[in-house]
Amino acid sequence: MRQDKILIIGACGQIGVELTLALRKAYGNNNVIAADIKESHPLLKDDGPYYQLNVMDSDATLNIVKKENITQIYLLAALLSATGEKNPKLAWDINMQSMLQILDISLQEKLDRVYWPSSIAVFGTSTPNEQTQQKTIIEPRTVYGISKYAGELWCQYYNQRWGLDVRSLRYPGLISWKSAPGGGTTDYAVEIYHEALKNKHYTCFLSENTYLPMMYMDDAIRGTIELMQVPTDKLSTRMAYNISAMSFSPKEIAESIKKHIPEFNIDYNPDFRQQIADSWPKSIDDSLARTDWIWKPEFNLDKMTENMLLNLKSTI
Ligand code: AKB
Cys-Cys with 289: which of 18, 24, 102, 241 at CB 3.0–4.6 Å? Predict the structure, then answer.
C-alpha cells in the first residue's frame, strides 16, 4: 500500500474547511494538501500544505497532483443552487468542466480514489417528496441539480468504463459553525443561528412550513470519510448515495432556538429560493447507505442547536 496523499480542492468552502481539518487529524497534516481559489482561510493557515488554485486550471491541478504524489482527490469547488440560478451557464461550465478535468487527471495519474459531492438538488417536483428513495424519478429543476445529476452519471461511467474508484453522497442542507455556506437554498439554517445570537431576530427567505432534509456538519464529515474508507466491495451503487439525518421547517428550527434564547423571533419573506426549496424532497430515505456502509447520523435538531449556539458564542 502506498502512503495516502490527499488533495482537497475547494478547501476554504463550507465543507472544505472542516473536511481538511478532519482528514489532517486522520492522515497527518502533511498528507492532506488544501487548495482553493482563495488566498487562505484563517482555520487552515499554518496548519499544513496549501495552494492557491483555480479549479478550472487543469495544468496547475495536474502539477500539484504530480509534485505532491497525490493518491486521492476530494473535489468540493462548485456553484450552489441559488447562485447557479443567477448565472446558469457559468454554473454548468464550472461544475461540469472542473469535474471532468479531475476525473481525467485521476485516471491519467492512476489515483486510488476520488470524492465528488452530489446533492438532494438532483430531485425535482416530479419526485415523490416524502422519504425520497435512492432510485426514483429524477428531473432536477435547477442548473445546479442538473449538473449534480449529470455528474453522478459521469462518476458511474468512469467507474464502469475505466474502473476509477469515484464515490459520492447526495448531501442535504449542511449546518456548520466553523465555516459559512455560500449561495445555497438551505443557507437560512446557518444564518438563523448567527442572527439569533447577534440580533435575536431573523427574517427567513423561505416560508415557515418549508420542510427540507438537513444535516449537522459533524455528521456530514464523518459520513464522507466513512464512505471513502469503506472497502470497494461494500458499495452497491456508483451513483451518489442518499444520506439523511433530520428534516425540519424554518418554524421548527426557530422553536428549537427559542429553547435557548426565549426572546428570539422570526418572520418570513420568501424570495426566489422558495421555488427551489419547493422542488426538493421534504425527507430522504437513506437505507442503502445504512446497509452498505452502516451510515448512522448522530445529531437531531435539538442536539445540533445546542452545539451550534455553544460553539458560535465562543467565536463572537
Ligand atoms: C444548496 O442549498 O444549494 C446546497 C445543497 C442542498 O446542495 N446546500
Answer: 241
205 pLDDT tier (thresholds 50, 70, 90): very high
Q: Helix 188-199 crosses helix 301-315 at what angle (to 10 degrees)? A: 50
- What is the DSSP-derived secondary structure letter of residue 284? B
For residue 63, how far is its CA from the centre of ligand 1 (angstroms)? 31
Q: Where are the domain boundaries for CATH 3.40.50.720 in the chain?
A: 6-172
Interval between CA 186 and ligand 1 midpoint (Å): 6
Q: What is the pLDDT of residue 68?
A: 98
What confidence tens digit (pLDDT) does each residue in 255-276 have?
999 999 999 999 999 999 999 9
Task: Report the C-alpha gap between 222 and 20 in whole angstroms.
Answer: 12
- Please give the Cα distance from 152 to 166 (Å, whole number): 10
| pLDDT tens, position by position, 93-141 | 999 999 999 999 999 999 999 999 999 999 999 999 999 999 999 999 9
Three-state SS at 228? helix
CATH of domain 6-172: 3.40.50.720
Q: How far apart are CA 111 and CA 264, in angstroms?
A: 50
Instruction: Calculate the alpha carbon distances from 277 to 30, 121, 156 in Å.
Output: 40, 9, 27
Q: Is 144 designated active site?
A: yes
Alpha carbon 153 to its chain's center: 18
H helix intervals, the chain: 14-27, 58-67, 81-86, 88-92, 98-108, 143-162, 188-199, 217-229, 250-258, 273-278, 287-292, 301-315
**Confidence (pLDDT) at 2:** 86
Where in the chain is CATH 3.90.25.10? Answer: 174-214+244-312
Identify the pLDDT of residue 262: 98
What pTM value is reported for the model? 0.97
Instruction: List, chain by chain if needed, residues with CB within 6 Å of any ligand 1 atom.
Output: 80-81, 119-121, 144, 171, 173, 184-186
